[in-house]
Each structure stands twice: as structure tokens, then as C-alpha cells.
Design brief:
Length: 285
């Protein structure tokens, strides 16, 4: 083979090699990353590829639970709301089917700062303004919409969150009315409070023993959802106390068994509302 011939062959080899590289690159560029459907339902536990795969396979409902970091008497941890709504959100998602859950929004309205009001009067309470909380919910909802979720469910375990939650849901529904996206203000979850009180009254309790904040209902729910967050012995350690405990009713009458029944009422109510508004039956359980 002469020198020019060898040069010609070498040139064709180089050109062919470059062509193969470009072709392989094109094939790789056209093939998106894939992942099998995960059994996890917490968005924070998934990779972005797993979230995309879940949405593509019909997981288009997302729950946005909000809790709160506030005083709950001397017998219960400050993260009570977070623990309860985290537990409940998982039950709701499993009942609904094809649903993922965002991390719990911990920072919610808790009262004024100066002078402090409501729960802000007690050390350890961490609150934000209604505007800050509303902005957080809106940002989460917009992020979920961008990912492809079609039904976004706001679920609050704290009364002080309800006003802002409703306002954000209403505003986004108006904005997205033609986009096929629903933002649900799941009022039935917190609204189950009345059914809970009736359930307790039917079992011999009184309005006085049930109480309100950090009382029989809250304490029973946390005993069911996260028992290590409750120490009822602490309620008996300060006889004749003059300082407010931040709790009401008789939390010593709480139990995990009652808590499970009370939480079922909240979960059932939320599942019924969400299923009705998204037009699908909940998964069998």
C-alpha cells in the first residue's frame, strides 16, 4: 500500500470513529434517565428521577401537611403537631393511592411577637407571620405544579394555619382554573374535631375533661402517633402550681387506644373530601 493510500485509509478510519462517537452520543442524549416505581411515598426520600417516574405512572396527587412548633403543656413535646400530621398524612396517602407527600411545614403562625400572644408567650414556640406561611405554601404548590402534580392537598393540624391555607388555595385555584390543577383546602381534616369531641362525650367524658389545647384529644393522638413525645407523670409534679401550664382539660385520661380512634376520624374525613374533589375512589384498606 502506497503512502497516499495508507493516508486515505487512516482518514476514513478517523471519520468513521467520529461518526460512531456522534451516533452513540445522539442515542444517549435521546434516552432519558429512568427509575423503577419506588414504594416510598415521602418526596424527600426519593430521587428526582423517581419522582418523575412516579408522576408519569399516575402519582399526580400530593399532600402538603403543615404542623407547628408550639408549647403543649409540660407533658408533651413542642413538635406535637408535626408528629401527628406526619403520621396522618401517611395514612391518608396510602388510603388514596398514587399519592406522594411533601415534608411537613413546621413554621406556622403562632401569635404576635412583641408583646407575645397565644403560644408565643411560652419558651420554645417558633412562629412565623401569616404572610410568611402563605408564601411557603404557595411556593410549594408552584413547585409541585411544575413537576406535574394535578391535585395538591393542603392539610393543617394547627388552627392558626387554616386562614392562610384557605386563602392560598383559593388564589391558586383562580389562577389555575384553566390548567386542570386543583389545590384543595382539606378542611375536613381539622373539621373532624367536632366528631372527635362527640366520640369522647359518648364515652363518658365532659367538655371540662376534654379541654382544648394540649388536652385529652391532642395527648391521645400523640400517644398513638409518637408516644415518646408524651410524659404524663410531669402533670403531677407541680401540685398547687400558680403558673399556667399551657394545657387544658385532663390529659391524664388520654390513651393511645383513644388516640388511634380519634386519628381515624381525621383520616377518614380527609380521605372522603379529597376523593370526592378529585373524582376517584380511595384505595381499598
Amino acid at each position: 500500500m502506497t503512502g497516499p493510500e495508507r493516508h486515505k485509509v487512516s482518514w476514513w478510519i478517523k471519520i468513521s470513529g467520529i461518526g460512531l462517537v456522534l451516533a452513540a452520543g445522539a442515542l444517549l442524549a435521546e434516552k432519558p434517565l429512568t427509575a423503577p416505581l419506588s414504594s416510598k411515598i415521602q418526596i424527600a426520600d426519593l430521587t428526582w428521577v423517581e419522582v418523575r417516574a412516579a408522576v408519569e405512572q399516575g402519582f399526580t396527587t400530593a399532600i402538603v401537611p403543615s404542623g407547628g412548633l408550639e408549647q403543649n403543656g409540660p407533658h408533651m413535646a413542642i413538635g406535637k403537631h408535626d408528629r401527628i400530621v406526619f403520621w396522618a398524612a401517611q395514612q391518608i396517602a396510602n388510603r388514596l393511592g398514587r399519592t406522594l407527600i411533601t415534608p411537613v411545614v413546621s413554621y406556622v403562625p403562632q401569635g404576635a411577637y412583641d408583646p407575645p400572644t397565644d403560644n408565643m408567650r411560652f419558651p420554645g414556640t417558633l412562629g412565623v407571620t401569616e404572610e410568611a406561611f402563605a408564601g411557603t405554601l404557595e411556593g410549594i404548590a408552584r413547585s409541585l405544579k411544575a413537576t406535574g402534580f394535578k391535585t395538591i392537598c393542603f392539610i393543617a393540624d394547627h388552627a392558626g394555619s387554616l386562614k392562610a391555607q384557605a386563602q392560598v388555595a383559593r388564589r391558586l385555584n383562580e389562577e389555575w382554573s384553566d390548567a386542570g390543577i386543583k389545590v384543595l383546602d382539606v378542611t375536613a381534616y381539622y373539621g373532624a374535631d367536632l366528631a372527635q369531641q362527640k366520640w369522647l362525650l359518648a364515652r363518658g367524658e365532659t367538655p371540662g375533661s376534654i379541654g382544648g389545647h394540649a388536652g385529652l384529644q391532642d395527648t391521645s393522638e400523640l400517644l398513638a402517633a409518637w408516644p415518646q413525645g408524651v410524659d404524663l407523670v410531669r402533670l403531677t409534679q407541680w401540685p398547687g402550681r400558680s403558673e399556667s401550664t399551657g394545657a387544658s382539660g385532663d390529659p391524664t385520661r388520654a390513651s393511645a387506644e383513644r388516640g388511634r380512634a380519634l386519628l381515624d376520624l381525621k383520616v377518614d374525613a380527609a380521605v372522603a373530601q379529597i376523593s370526592g374533589e378529585r373524582g376517584s375512589a380511595p384505595a381499598a384498606h
